[in-house]
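I would love for you to help me understand the pair of lines that follows before we discuss the fold together.
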Amino acid sequence: MSEETLEPPLPPIDARTEAVAERLFGLKWALRKDSTEIIHEEWQTAPEWIHDGYLRQAIEVLATADQAQPARAAESDYKERMRVEYRELTARAGRLRDMLQRFMDEYANLLRRRARIEHVNLEKQDSATE
């Protein structure tokens, strides 16, 4: 986790997720009608925090799309239902984790601001806790 944002690390990113993230990034320039080459170049030179944000969005979009796929009739046995239930559970858990992470990040930022105002060094250890 990053010290500043406390963001959870991204899972391994596959080519599909990377392509969706770049497409989402490209929607920003859709009204300007930029060429795909320009959008690709902008994506390649974008800062890491922009990549992370679009990759997180792509992961959510793909999870939702995967859930929307109807189960094939031949694979509608209990094993397929279990797989679907597992995917739904992991998607929900990921969204919950992200929500909790945002709340913790906001709380940590508030504590940092309060510590700055009250001149408290957050890095210094109390002798009672050592």
About this structure: The two ends are 24 Å apart (CA to CA). The chain has a mean pLDDT of 81. The first helix runs from residue 15 to 26. Residues 10 and 56 are 8 Å apart (CA to CA).
